Description:
Elements: H1 3-17, H2 33-58, H3 66-95, H4 99-104, H5 109-140, E1 145-147, E2 150-152, H6 154-185, H7 194-217
Antiparallel strand pairs: 1-2
Helix pairs in contact: 1-6, 2-3, 2-6, 2-7, 3-5, 3-7, 5-6
Amino acid sequence: xxxxxxxxxxxxxxxxxxxxxxxxxxxxxxxxxxxxxxxxxxxxxxxxxxxxxxxxxxxxxxxxxxxxxxxxxxxxxxxxxxxxxxxxxxxxxxxxxxxxxxxxxxxxxxxxxxxxxxxxxxxxxxxxxxxxxxxxxxxxxxxxxxxxxxxxxxxxxxxxxxxxxxxxxxxxxxxxxxxxxxxxxxxxxxxxxxxxxxxxxxxxxxxxxxxxxxxxxxxxxxxxxxxxxxxxxxxxxxxxxx
Length: 242
């Protein structure tokens, strides 16, 4: 692509990030069509942002807040899957030629490239975190394989996925936060299906809350009384599960 082409791509991304350029999401009866999908995705994304910030706060004292760290990690899974589903639905409808979604168009090119990385990074982070809960501390520290002379276990994979997730998600938040807020606020435009969207999002949070209660009741050996042994291999700092 020429330098002018790249400049256009960057300008398009910056315009979208600043809310100057928005996709013309058609409004359809029933669920709202692309406009309804966009609002559910935006609300879910904002909820995820709040939960991820809370999760990051627990890293300030991961030893003392390990129970909450694990619980919040589990809470994040249902809404993360919901956002993946709403985004995936839009992609499928667009590439299968649905008229309304084709009219709405795709996001800027750079965000199309970044999107799959955000999804994969989030699923890797949450998936390895869930594995830590299921396996418990002892089994999570058992070596899976050796890479570059370093032993790698589930805890190491979780911490490595955190690094990848932090980079790609940080870029994604910078590009999508303002547009998501604008879409969630909705202005004066009425989009059918608000109750259904609220129920879907609320349902994911109810499931998340029930899972968190189970994790707090059975932390799998990860608890604040257990001062983690040194884990000085690979990316892992001393004792933090990431």
